[in-house]
Write a structure and sequence with these properties.
This protein is an alpha+beta fold. It contains two helices and 19 strands. The chain has a five-stranded antiparallel β-sheet, with no helix packed on it. Strands 10, 11, 13, 14 and 15 form a five-stranded antiparallel β-sheet that branches. The radius of gyration is 56 Å and the shape is rod-shaped. The N and C termini lie far apart (144 Å).
Length: 263
């Protein structure tokens, strides 16, 4: 960090101060009175850092005086130290109405300078500090890949591409009912309807079989029953023949008539 004086006069007394850490270098009478770790003074009074970290971020002010105590230089400079950006991941949050919110998540990063770029199918659609992008239900149904890229002035990293799908918990409710409850109700109703149809078919089949059996029995009895209306039926009376091996002196009994039906 350069220190500038009037007419490039060489300073005799130099003080460098950090806005958060206080005095980091105090040089007087040709030697260091205060010197923070990792810094050194150049010949012209400029401040050199051997290395920097996040704690070195801030504003530095200096003042310089000549041998008689007159101020010959005064100014300030700012250092911004950025952390390397870790690789982000895309998190998906579906809503009940079918929309989706995508978040570009960078774990444990508190860098306020991060900028997030969103890509849809490889094309830039948003470049803001906000880590989220919102998709309508129509965009969700298009099943396009999305990715995000986080970057600061010194580094950048891009996430893996993801295809947004909201068939899970995000769309779990419609009309105030859980979708799985609705599926269960519909499935149960269909099963009950199928059961009723099966019972009805069994009843119809049993009824038909019973009627067929009854008709068959009536038809068989009709064949076995004589037809009394047959006009050709004739009834004749026959005398019973005398019994064999009767005694000669035994009288023949009176013949017993019997009926004979001829067709």
């Amino acid at each position: 960090m350069k220190l500038r004086t009037k007419n490039n006069e060489k300073p005799f007394d130099i003080r460098w101060t950090h806005d958060r850490n206080g005095d980091i270098l105090l040089w007087r009478y040709g030697r260091n009175k205060v010197k923070a770790e990792g810094v050194s003074k150049e010949e012209d009074g400029s401040l050199r850092f051997q290395s920097v970290s996040l704690k070195d971020t801030g504003t530095y002010t200096y003042s310089a005086f000549n041998t008689d105590g007159t101020e010959i230089g005064k100014g300030e400079a700012e250092i911004k130290v950025y952390e390397r950006v870790p690789k982000p991941t895309v998190k998906i949050n579906c809503t009940a109405d079918g929309n989706a919110a995508l978040t570009c998540d960078v774990e444990n990063s508190k860098d306020p300078s991060l900028t997030v770029s969103w890509y849809e199918d490889g094309k830039l659609i948003q470049n803001e500090i906000k880590p989220q992008v919102f998709l309508s239900s129509t965009q969700v149904q298009e099943n396009k890949p999305y990715s995000c890229e986080t970057h600061n002035p010194v580094s950048k990293e891009k996430s893996e591409s993801v295809t947004v799908s909201c068939e899970g918990p995000g769309l779990g409710k419609h009309f105030g009912l859980d979708i799985w409850i609705m599926v269960g109700i519909v499935s149960g109703g269909s099963a009950l309807l199928l059961l009723l149809i099966c019972v009805l078919l069994i009843c119809i089949i049993c009824s038909c079989c019973k009627k067929h059996k009854q008709d068959h029995v009536e038809f068989g009895l009709a064949d076995l029953t004589p037809d009394h209306t047959d006009t050709n039926t004739k009834t004749q009376i026959h005398a019973q023949p005398p019994p064999l091996h009767q005694d000669e002196d035994e009288e023949y009994p009176t013949p017993i008539p019997y009926l004979s039906t001829n067709h």
